[in-house]
């Protein structure tokens, strides 16, 4: 099924006890876009993201992914159908090389299935070769080739972020969710990260849905930008338009 919207959130609501975290909120992410989500602390951004990614089930409303209703599906199920979220490199993986970290990401190549492995051992080898080749392509694309055999734990903060991004390239993502990926990354590395996100978008056609506090980064990368406040979407448009709207600036900084 093809649809112009990769993610279509329809009237979702989530309460935590008496607190209305997300209130009848609708928004969407167009295929091929880098869509940003901003808003003051407590606006409901992470809760909304968690509902899209399957970490939280909405009290009401639907999450449509690539034309199908995925409300209530688990993160691993969403992962399998191409909704990817970046994860920090876990402690256990810091003792593996950058390349091995990429090769860890499950794909859907032959050899994945027990029967194939049992009856056709040759396939496993060819899968291994294919995965390795893909991982090498990914490190090249991200210009991490020179550190591919370094232990992930020894990489710089910025290189780790690139590796996190790289893991989303090991499977066929329809959309990549980035939740404050720039947090704790210095300006020059941030630039590097941003240009790689741009290249993934422009050259490889990746769609991104991004929560970010860094307004410069949002302004550079995202169009459109969606603004949330008090659990609701209050505006959507190019960053220049958002910045120029006094009501939004008021709602954004006035709380
Ligand atoms: P944002 O990411 O925009 O800062 P959140 O989605 O994290 O906002 O939070 C929205 C509101 O929901 C806040 O008032 C927050 O305190 C509350 N909240 C978020 N998660 C929980 C939770 N697990 N339990 C109770 N309240 C929560
Ligand atoms: Mg948050």
Please tag this protein with its features.
10 helices, globular, four-stranded antiparallel sheet, binds magnesium ion, 255 residues, 2 domains, Rossmann fold, binds adenosine-5'-diphosphate, alpha/beta, six-stranded mixed sheet
Could you tell me how far the N terminus lies from the C terminus, measured between alpha carbons in angstroms?
42 Å
pLDDT average, as an integer?
87
**What's the helical proportion of residues?**
25-40%
Shape designation:
globular
Name the structural class: alpha/beta
What CATH architecture of the largest domain would you give?
Answer: 3-Layer(aba) Sandwich
* CATH C-level of the largest domain: Alpha Beta
Number of helices: 10
Evaluate the radius of gyration.
19 Å
Question: How many beta-strand runs?
Answer: 10
How many domains, in number, for the residues?
A: 2
- CATH superfamily heading of the largest domain: P-loop containing nucleotide triphosphate hydrolases
Q: Kindly report the spatial arrangement of strands forming the biggest sheet.
A: 6-7-8-3-9-10
Low-confidence stretches: 109-113
Q: Name every ligand kind in the structure.
A: adenosine-5'-diphosphate, magnesium ion
Tell me the major beta sheet.
Answer: 6 strands, mixed
CATH topology of the largest domain: Rossmann fold
């Amino acid at each position: 099924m093809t649809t112009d919207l990769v993610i279509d959130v329809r009237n979702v609501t989530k309460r935590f006890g008496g607190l209305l975290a997300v209130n009848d909120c609708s928004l969407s992410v167009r295929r091929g876009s880098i869509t940003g989500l901003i808003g003051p602390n407590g606006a409901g951004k992470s809760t909304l993201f968690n509902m899209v990614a399957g970490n939280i089930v909405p009290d009401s409303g639907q999450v449509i992914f690539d034309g199908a209703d995925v409300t209530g599906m688990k993160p691993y199920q969403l992962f399998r159908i191409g909704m990817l979220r970046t994860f920090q490199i876990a402690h256990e993986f810091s003792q593996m090389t950058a390349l091995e970290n990429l090769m860890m990401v499950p794909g859907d190549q032959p050899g994945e299935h027990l029967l194939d492995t049992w009856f056709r051992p040759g396939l496993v080898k060819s899968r291994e070769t294919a995965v390795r080749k893909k991982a090498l392509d990914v490190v090249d694309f991200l210009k991490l080739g020179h550190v591919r055999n370094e232990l992930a734990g020894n990489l710089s903060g910025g290189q780790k972020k690139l590796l996190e991004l790289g893991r989303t390239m090991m499977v066929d993502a329809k959309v990549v969710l980035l939740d404050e990926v720039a947090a704790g990354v210095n300006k020059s590395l941030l630039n590097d990260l941003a240009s790689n996100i741009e290249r993934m978008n422009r050259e490889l056609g990746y769609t991104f849905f991004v929560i970010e506090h860094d307004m410069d980064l949002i302004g550079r990368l995202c169009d459109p930008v969606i603004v949330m406040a008090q659990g609701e979407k209050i505006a959507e448009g190019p960053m220049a338009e958002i910045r120029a709207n006094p009501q939004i600036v008021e709602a954004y900084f006035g709380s």
